[in-house]
Amino acid sequence: MFYVTKDNNHGLSHNPFKAIVAPRPIGWISTLSKEGVPNLAPYSFFNAIGANPDLIMFSSGGWKDSATNARDTGEFVYNYVGQDLVKVMNETSVDAPHNTSEFEVAGIDSAPSEMVKPARVRDACAALECKVTQIIEIVDIDGNKTNDIVVIGQVMGIYIDDKVITDGRFDVNLAKPVTRLGYMDFKGHDGIFELLRPDWKG
């Protein structure tokens, strides 16, 4: 089959785009608002984009708290999502009101970062402390602004739990990464599984 994306006439029950561009690492991003409220949210559009210096990016659909906080404070932290943190990671995807701490909502313990103000997830086996280098409001082929905002950060410091270091390497067999697939599908150490995004109960 073939379809033209602007017509969206693929005839499938769901748009296949995200399922084709997969797997993707989960960008579990912690930030701090200018009022000092911690925020924690997962992003499915996330990756490393450079190594000299180390650079990562996440893309937000609109000016959500993570992108807004990163813009306002110039800092964010990426937290590694391993198999043991999948449930609480998913709880932080809830559409919580502005200036709500997902650390509190999901009962997640934080730990202070070394080089930036936003805290890291204490139980994450790795974290990248970042300073914002660029924020790009994406445009389409016609030059029209889309709803997507890309936040690029330079990695200033890296935390690694000693338990996942083997023979001088970050051991992915011990870290057990979880990646994002299409639809509600994820890929973990033991295979593919589905997670439904929680609703905000208030």
Tell me the strand order in the biggest sheet. Answer: 3-2-6-9-10-5-4
CATH architecture: Roll
Number of strands: 15
Q: If you compute it from the alpha carbons, what radius of gyration comes out, rounded to the nearest whole angstrom?
A: 17 Å
In helices, the fraction of residues equals 10-25%
What are the main properties of this structure?
mainly beta, 202 residues, single chain, Pnp Oxidase, Chain A, 5 helices, seven-stranded antiparallel β-sheet, four-stranded antiparallel β-sheet, globular
Written account of the structure:
The structure is a single chain. With 202 residues, this protein is mainly beta. The protein has one domain: Electron Transport, Fmn-binding Protein, Chain A (Pnp Oxidase, Chain A, Roll). Helices cover 13% and strands 40% of the residues. The protein is built from 5 helices and 15 strands. Strand 9 and strand 10 form a beta hairpin. The longest helix has 9 residues. It is globular.
